[in-house]
């Protein structure tokens, strides 16, 4: 659980790279919940097991994949709303993402976020331009 800060730093990097910082809060709540579920429920808080988080652009937005080393879970048993204190994290993930799917018996979750106007090449071009601008500006100061 102490490594959740690393997930936040990773998300900051992704949001900066794709110039989508205005989506950061929505993505963060869902992503952190997925990672926490993977640590606690998937890996059973076993420090010998890892949780992997990846991000990539997809058609119309960005996709995050969170994978644990657990056995998975019966994700079909959780409905749209939490019941008796169970499924609250899944409810948050379903509510905030535009698409939520489970793979490997539930040990891998994919969350897609629709982001209009995301274009990785344009975002990278802008970052290079700004970095060059600030490098020149800093050198002149």
Features:
alpha+beta; 141 residues; single chain; 4 strands; Heat Shock Protein 90; elongated
List the helices and strands and how they pair.
Elements: H1 4-17, H2 24-42, E1 52-58, E2 61-67, H3 88-96, E3 99-103, E4 108-114, H4 120-140
Antiparallel strand pairs: 1-2, 2-4, 3-4
How would you describe the overall organization of this protein?
It is a single chain. The chain has 141 residues and is of the alpha+beta class. It is 45% helix and 18% strand. A 4-stranded antiparallel sheet has the order 1-2-4-3, covered by helices on one side. Helix 1 packs antiparallel against helix 2 and helix 2 packs antiparallel against helix 3. The chain is elongated, with a radius of gyration of 17 Å. The N and C termini lie far apart (42 Å). The relative contact order is 0.16.
CATH class type: Alpha Beta
CATH architecture heading: 2-Layer Sandwich
Strand arrangement across the biggest beta sheet:
1-2-4-3
**Helix share bin:** 40-55%
CATH topology-level fold name: Heat Shock Protein 90
What's the structural domain tally?
Answer: 1
Helix/strand/pairing category: alpha+beta
Mean pLDDT: 84
Q: How much of the residues is beta strand, in percent?
A: 15-25%
The poorly predicted ranges are none
Shape: elongated
Q: What is the terminal separation in angstroms? A: 42 Å
Care to count the β-strands? 4
What is the rounded Rg? 17 Å
Helix-strand pattern: HHEEHEEH
């Amino acid at each position: 659980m102490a490594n959740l800060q690393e997930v936040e730093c990773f998300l900051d990097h992704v949001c900066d790279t794709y110039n989508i910082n205005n989506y950061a809060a929505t993505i963060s709540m869902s992503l952190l919940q997925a990672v926490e579920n993977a640590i606690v429920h998937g890996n059973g808080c076993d420090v010998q097991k890892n949780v992997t988080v990846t991000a990539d652009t997809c058609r119309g937005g960005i996709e995050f994949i969170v994978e644990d080393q657990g056995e998975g879970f019966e994700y079909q048993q959780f409905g749209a709303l939490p019941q008796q204190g169970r499924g609250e994290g899944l409810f948050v993930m379903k509510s905030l993402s535009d698409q939520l799917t489970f793979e490997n018996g539930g040990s891998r979750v994919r969350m897609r976020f629709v982001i209009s106007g995301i274009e990785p090449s344009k975002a990278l071009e802008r970052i290079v331009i700004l970095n060059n601008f600030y490098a020149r500006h800093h050198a002149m100061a």
